[in-house]
């Protein structure tokens, strides 16, 4: 669940995933997703413990990390939506 990875750890995590995959390797993402275009963080006891991206910001984050998004499905929920994304590693020459 990508929403559990916070701050700069997200870039590190996505870099490790990218480097672990072969060209066209599949990365399946499951995450909480904002109901609008605003990403935000959830805190508990004054500590950030969830990052809730908007659909577009999550797709942009994946693309900037070298992935091509094949499909993105948002599932409407009462408070926070859920998103699944099928992405593949792109190798640029």
Automatic annotation (TrEMBL):
A Gene Ontology biological process noted in the UniProt record is: methylation
Checking SUPFAM superfamilies in the record gives:
S-adenosyl-L-methionine-dependent methyltransferases (SSF53335)
The reply to whether Methyltransferase figures as a keyword in the UniProt entry is yes
Gene3D superfamilies associated with the record: Vaccinia Virus protein VP39
Molecular function terms from GO? methyltransferase activity
Organism of this sequence: Vibrio parahaemolyticus
- Statement: the UniProt record of this protein carries the keyword Methyltransferase: yes
Enumerate the UniProt keywords alphabetically.
Answer: Methyltransferase, Transferase
What protein name applies here?
SAM-dependent methyltransferase
